Amino acid sequence: MAEPAAARLAGLHLVTDSTLCGERGLLAVVEAAVRGGVRVVQLREKTLATRPFVERARALKALLQPLGVPLIVNDRLDVALACGADGVHVGQEDLSPKDMRRWMPQGLIGLSIERLDQLDAAERLPVDYYGASPVFATATKADAAPALGLEGLRALRARTTRPLVAIGGIGAHNAGAVMAAGADAVAVVSALCAAPDPEDAARRLRAAMETTRA
Amino acid sequence: MAEPAAARLAGLHLVTDSTLCGERGLLAVVEAAVRGGVRVVQLREKTLATRPFVERARALKALLQPLGVPLIVNDRLDVALACGADGVHVGQEDLSPKDMRRWMPQGLIGLSIERLDQLDAAERLPVDYYGASPVFATATKADAAPALGLEGLRALRARTTRPLVAIGGIGAHNAGAVMAAGADAVAVVSALCAAPDPEDAARRLRAAMETTRA
């Protein structure tokens, strides 16, 4: 935990969607994506009962720990605590980061920011990074807010020094522009979970992030 | 926390169902039921998002704390930790009591037992009480297991010294028989949440539990 949050969070993030992973299974897709360069994995399950959720989280943690890839659990502090996750990511409607911090003093805590006017309150919370969400329109998240756009991302960048993880509608075609707009990291769901070859897709995403940034 | 678990758990329990409480609201129903003699409240929410769930749990805790009535949260350790609940109740598909205990060293941990053959494994877990569930057929819980019956309850009683909280299809007409079969407590959902007068219904349930037991 000595490494600062910004360094641990830089690069390409995979946010899971087990339905999109299909028959290949979540673990196989994650493993391939990590081979291709994914640096952080966020486990998101919106319908799973608690025990299978914990079992899945533990299996992922066992896969990622030896690879040095942090596992972040979406929304559920209980699952994160039970599997020994490296962090929790919450939305505006989830448990407050303040409540999380008490039980995860060292963990990475991420908070989704969907509108600029959420930033002031967020800056007073014990948060390690923001998910800027969604940057572009996305079909993956049914309840997603209106897109921030690159303009919104730049505005966030101008107003906070905390790491920004951009998510929503990002692929190899626009990942460079997103990094150029000030993101510290890019998170994708379908661009990896629905990719025929997640390892190759991760490699191309990383290249896109780095090329345009230089 | 000095009081032993059995003493803290004895009596009438209310397991909440906010839909059944209707327009009166959950808090008003709980308050009336506690006036009528409810000794333990379990908050059960199966569809609420995390933040409103925590808000509801905190409001209940603020109501119950001064009355000396323990609040137990169904399934969600994260919500229980955030609201300072007195315990957590889990089913066979929820987080394991072993994982719970680590984060709630002093809390009441309850586990639902639906079949006799679940008891052996349960006895090795750090559990304070069992929910014997369901004793009778019930319409309240969509995924309820086949009824244990008074026979099943007696069999559980013969095989464990841990407190048994009987739940499922219990009302004033059969609460006495349930206590006579060896339950330490009776938990109800609809018999209180759907009662026109929850205070009076609680009083009649308590009387039924005590009369037939004596």
Shape of chain A: globular
Q: Write the CATH homologous superfamily of chain A.
A: Aldolase class I
Outline the biggest β-sheet of chain A. 8 strands, parallel, barrel
- The CATH class label of chain A is Alpha Beta
State the share of residues found in helices of chain A, binned by percent: 40-55%
Q: State Rg of chain A.
A: 16 Å
Residue fraction in strands of chain A = 15-25%
Q: Number of domains in the coordinates of chain A? A: 1
Oligomer: homodimer
Average pLDDT over all residues of chain A? 94
Q: Secondary-structure element order of chain A, as H and E?
A: HEHHEHEHEHEHEHEHEHH
How far from one another are the termini of chain A? 29 Å
The strand count of chain A comes to 8
Number of helices in the DSSP assignment of chain A? 11
CATH fold-level topology of chain A: TIM Barrel
Strand order in space, largest sheet of chain A: 1-2-3-4-5-6-7-8
Uncertain spans of chain A: none
Q: What is the level-2 CATH architecture name of chain A? A: Alpha-Beta Barrel
